[in-house]
Fold 23S rRNA (Uracil(1939)-C(5))-methyltransferase RlmD.
Amino acid sequence: MPLQKNQLLTLRIERLSSDGSGVAHSPEGEAVFVPGTAPGDEAQVRIVKDCGRYAFGILDKLLTPSPDRIPVDCAVAGPCGGCSLRHMDYAAELRSKQESVADAFRRIGGLDVPVLDALPSPEVDRYRNKVQFPVGRDKNGAPCIGFYAGRTHRIVPCPDCKLQPGVLNDIGNALCSFFAAHGIQPYDEESGKGLVRHIFLRRGTHSGQIMVCLVCTRPKFPHSEELVAALREQFSDIASILINVNAKKTNVILGEETVSLYGPGYIEDTLCGVPVRLGPLSFYQVNTLAAERLYGIAAEYAQLEPSDVLLDLYCGMGTIGLSMADHCRELIGVEIVPEAIDSAKANAARMGDAVAAKSRFFCADAGQAAARLAAEGLRPDVIMLDPPRKGCDETTLSAVVQMSPRRVVYVSCNPSTAARDAAWLEEHGYHAEKVQPVDLFPRTRHVEAIVSLQREI
């Protein structure tokens, strides 16, 4: 019998799903997904939608809390939805992420592969080096920063997000005070009126340099000189202040035009010793310290030898491959975004003549480039794969197999597609040795995973 909307059930939460919801089962065995719960909770759950084989519910009343529960230390964690695991002890969060990755490789990949304990982030709070605050109005009509409530464009005011360094929250609040004092209006999506859409901030974890970028509907910003002076006086680490222009009615945050009000237009930092320059459009891991841990594991799994050729597909700014450049004879990087390839070449040059001479980067679709390189007879010893969430297409995987590297290291932000692709490689001559989850996103549902694959002789 189907579950009914608003029906109340007493359920025990068994585990977390990949989206961070608790999973329980009705007395008839139907899976029920309940956000904001923890494994071990006994709860009264209100059904909000039945989909036949599974249902969605909300926590109506917590009857017996899980021993993994902790007090939520953010007043807007629920409506904001960004920190979907803020109610759980961090050790329990890591266990749940390991279980989620293991489930994906077992259920989707059909692989009996060791999935190791999830590596923790060195910092659980204040770890993000980038924040994009939508700008709106609080209940009193004053400009405010916050985040969109889940599946909406309703801004939940959040003056102190615990995932961002305190200084970035302070800059966001100072900017809102400046807007209020000078009558500068937040953008209104419905009317299309107003100036400021987003506040985009970056901070170099090692350098401390800060970039301030205001996403506005036009390039001319009122009182810009006064704004620059006020920000520089209050926040001495600010290295660049920019206006990014986005006048379109779109959900895309950044526009194509950027105007500099102060500084070179970028900040500098390092990642695993690789010097990087970061502008508004740069793709970069948001948790620097955990990313360095991730890259260290990837290098360990690569098992590079001095005579090796390393092919880095989906190389982005080149940071993964360049962090291993001292351990191989040649590095080849492929990325579809032209600006990222320009950055990769510049990063290699800043590392010195020896690294620049052994590194080459070119702009192309990863699958097409891999197929071309395979047809040309390239035989890399190790291939690094770091695809987007959708994973690799079959063209890419087929080219990898054709090039026959000794080892493949697969870095993934989506364990489900990583499991699918690892299973394909297993069917075509590679053995998945182990999977290492790495937590780059504490207090959220997201987790990275690295798969070590060895060519079968």
